[in-house]
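Ligand: zinc ion. Inputs:
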Amino acid sequence: MRQLIIASLLAALPWAASAAPTWQTISSEPGKRIEIDRTSLKREGNTVQAQGRVVLDKELTDVKSGAPYRVIEAITRYDCSTRNANTIKRIYKRNENELVREEEINGSDLPVRTGTLDDKVLREVCRPPKDSQAEIAQKANEAAGQLKAANDALLKKELAKAEKPAAIKASDAEHGGIPSIKPNLKTQMESARAPAPTPVREAAPSKPATYLVHTAPTAAPKAKRPARQEGYMLELAQAEPALQHAHIHWDYEGVGGPENWAKLDAKNKVCGIGERQSPIDIKDGIKVDLEPIKFTYRPSTFRIVDNGHTIQVELGENSISLTGKTYELVQFHFHRPSEEKVNGQRFDMVVHLVHKSDEGQLAVVAVLLERGTENPFIQTLWNNMPLEKNSPVSPPTTLVDLNTLLPTARNYYTYMGSLTTPPCSEGVLWLVMKQPVQVSQDQINIFSRLYRNNARPIQPSSGRLIKEGR
Ligand SMILES: [Zn+2]
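Predicted complex:
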C-alpha cells in the first residue's frame, strides 16, 4: 500500500523523476500545436523563463542549413508585468530527437503580440494558478463593463470634437511603432484624447486600434485583475468602434487629400512645411559602395489587415541589420502606384517594409513591383485578403517568407526622408531596392479593386544627398 502511494506520487511528479522535458499541449490548431515544458519553468519575481515549442504537421526547410525541420523549440524569458519576451535560444529539430540547428539569440525584450506563440506561452506561464473559473468569469464581466463605460465616454467626447473643424483623431503613436498589446486602458484613452508627439508608423498610423483587435478564437473578453500587475489579459477589441467612429479620415483625394493633410491637424504640420519629406524622385545619386543590408527574414505566420489606407501585414521575428544596428520589422504594406519614382519613372506598385530599431529609428525597405509573372508571396497574401476593413485575418498555419519577396540583386538607393502618410514625421532612413520584382496584372488588379491610388505625390528633394549602390 505504502509503495503504491509512493509510486502514484512519483507518477504525478514527473519532473522529480528526470530532467527530460515533459511537453504539454497548450494550444492545438490545424497544422500545428504549441506545447510547453512545465519542468523548465524558472520563476523570479515577475519573470518566468520557459521552454516552449511549436510542432508542425508538415516539415519546413531551414533557410540557413537547408535541412527540413518540424519542431521549433524556444527558451524564452517572459516578463509577466510588462508582457515582454526575450528569446534566449531557438532549437530547430526534424523530430523529437533529430537536431537540425541551435541558435543563441542575443535579443532584447520585445512586446509580445497577441496570437503569437509567445502570447500563448506567456498567458500560460504567467497565469496565477489560484483563480477559480467562476472568479475569472466575474472579473471578465466587470472588466467588460468598465471598458464599455470608458468607450462610451470616449466616443461621446470624440464625436463632440469631430463636430468642430480641423479635428482628427490623434492616435498615431501610442504604440511606439511596434504594436504593443500591453493594454493599459488609461494610457489608451488618454492618448486618444491628446495628440501623441512622436509618430512612428510609416503608413496607416491612425489606426492603432487595429493592433488591439484580438483575432484569435480566444478573443472573448478577458479579465483584468486590478489587484495584481497582470493587466495583459485585458483585450481592447471593444475600444475599436469608438476610435473609428471618432476618426476623420485623411485620404488620397478629396478634402482629406494630400494637399490638405497639414491642415487636418496641427500635428500634421510637417506634411506641409517639412523639407525632408517622402516620397521623392530618386535621381542624381552619388554612386558608391554601400554596405549590404543583412536581412534576417524567416518563414513566419502573418496577420493581414485592410486598414482603410492600404493592405498591411504584420509578421513576428523578422529584422534587418545595417551599420551595426538591428531594425525589427514592424509591418509592411502596399502602395499603387509606387510612391517613389526612380529617374522619373514610377512603378506599378511598391511594398514598404517598415523596420524600427531599439532607439526608435525607422528604416523602410522599399521593394518596387512591376508587371510580369505572378508573385507567389503576394498571392499567399491576396488569398488571405480580409473581407472587411479593420478585420484582420491571421491564418494559423500559413507561413510566408519575406526572403522570397526580395529581389535577387540586393543593391539599393538610400536617402533620409519621412513617413509618407500623416503626420509625415521625418528622420526615416529609406532603403529602396534597385531591382524591381514582378507581380502579375491580375495581382495588381486585385489591389486596385481596393486601392486604385494610394500614393502620396512626389515631394521636393531639396538638395538631399541620395546614395546609389554601385
Ligand atoms: Zn508606405
